[in-house]
Design brief:
The protein is an alpha/beta fold. The chain has 17 helices and 17 strands.
Length: about 425
């Protein structure tokens, strides 16, 4: 086993990992994160940060904002989760993943410290990211929350700007069973006198953000209150947004949810310009048009091939599927759905949003937290979703491919980890 694989093994096995294990790995609170941060000489204080939370869209927003800042000439750190194929996707500078040797060195340094705390996988990985950004002297870092906001370990930072994309039902066991309760947790990233952009919020949820911002004297902007663009039309290259504050923009990301994300991102850029960051219209255009190449983003309505068309998307909660279901129902021709979930999601609300006229390939990701394929198939019956079950994502995908005509569409999703298994399989298949 290489030194890098040993370091990964330590991270995966010695520290509880929520993505794989679920609730048993969840550690709310900032005490351990603060102790770790102090042990590594508070690296996050060495550079400015932007903090991004929200139920849906925070990954796309974080990557696009990082791409814009990088296009503006800044050296940009980007911390996101989860990863799809390679652990190092979580920690990037100017699109480049942290090196294997740097992961090895960080784990070795941590082990030598013999600290009294027992961090989670996320807490240790976050500290690795902050330390990596400090050592490499980034100009700014874009930091995505892991789960929630108030008690998320990333909330030790003092950002120059906070962004909350939207609020929907997700992780209700940890964040609360009402939208107001979830909003209260996300609002925890709002900091005193620090501007905050809210992507989308109505009624009582909006009031939560308004009251929190007012209590902290934090300037607040609701992206939905302004006309970010006069039109958004889909083209072969992506979404074309006209009459923005930065001119006509071509957005590479094409999921239905991206129009909302775009309004949020444009508001965030305007706030950053207002506080002194130099971001030209050309940088905004380049960031939107090339976000995947610049940052390495994958899994947001990503078209993997044609004839048959193969699309994957990491949307995994009700809010995400409200957008995905509209997009899937608009597809012409045969639709084949390779679907799996994790066992701590309320999948019934997602299943009822899925197209009835599709052929289903029920499967499970290769993680302990996966909902068994047979359970997915049984639950799906209640919503008249018909198909067969498969023990692995690769097997389900292979059968879907073999049964598809050139004009069919294969969709892979339901869980981030189903998409991760597919991309890993395709990588291995490609190398072979």
């Amino acid at each position: 086993m290489t030194a890098y694989n040993q370091a990964l093994d330590f991270l995966y096995t010695q520290t509880p990992m929520f993505q794989r294990m679920g609730a048993n790995a969840y550690k709310p609170g900032l005490d351990t994160a603060i102790m770790l941060d102090e042990a590594f000489a508070r690296p996050h204080t060495k550079y400015p940060t932007v903090h991004i939370a929200g139920t849906n869209g925070k990954g796309s927003t974080a990557h696009t904002l990082a791409a814009i800042l990088q296009s503006a000439g800044y050296k940009v750190g980007l911390y996101t989760s989860p990863h799809l194929v390679d652990f190092r996707e979580r920690i990037r500078i100017d699109g480049e993943m942290i090196s294997q040797q740097e992961v090895v060195d960080f784990v070795a340094q941590y082990e030598k410290m013999n600290l009294s705390c027992s961090p989670s996988f996320f807490e240790l990985t976050m500290t690795m990211a902050f330390d990596h950004f400090a050592k490499n002297k980034v100009d700014i870092a874009v930091i995505e929350t892991g789960l929630g906001g108030r008690l998320d370990s990333t909330n030790i930072i003092s950002p120059i700007l906070s962004v909350i994309t939207n609020i929907s039902f997700d992780h209700t066991a940890f964040l609360g069973s009402t939208l107001v309760a979830i909003a209260s947790e996300k609002a925890g990233i709002i900091k005193p006198k620090t501007p905050v952009v809210i992507g989308e919020a109505q009624g009582e949820v909006r009031a939560v953000f308004d009251e929190k911002a007012q209590s902290l004297n934090a300037p607040i902007v609701f992206a939905q209150d302004r006309v970010a663009f006069s039109s958004a039309t889909i083209t072969p290259e992506g979404y074309k947004y006209t009459s923005t504050a930065f001119g006509t923009i071509l957005g590479e990301l094409t999921g239905d949810c991206q129009t909302k994300n775009t309004a949020t991102i444009l508001s965030a850029v305007e706030q950053m310009i207002k506080i002194g960051w130099e971001i030209t219209p050309d940088a905004v255009k380049k960031g939107f048009a090339n976000v995947c190449e610049i940052t390495g983003l994958m899994g947001r309505w990503t078209e993997l091939s044609q004839s048959p068309r193969v699309v994957c998307d990491t949307g995994h909660n009700v809010g995400g599927w409200e957008y995905l279901s509209r997009q899937l129902n608009d597809i012409k021709g045969n639709l084949r759905m390779v679907i799996g979930f994790v066992n701590d999601k309320d999948v019934s609300h997602i299943l009822q949003l899925m197209p009835v006229n599709a052929t289903y390939y029920f499967t499970q990701a290769d993680i302990p937290r996966a909902l068994p394929a047979e359970n997915v198939k049984e639950l799906a019956k209640e919503y008249n979703l018909q198909g067969n079950m498969f023990n692995t994502v690769a097997q389900a995908y292979e059968v879907a491919q073999s049964e598809s005509g050139v004009d069919d569409t294969i969709f892979i999703g339901g869980s981030t980890f189903v998409v991760a298994d597919l991309l890993t399989y395709l990588d291995i298949h490609k190398e072979g």
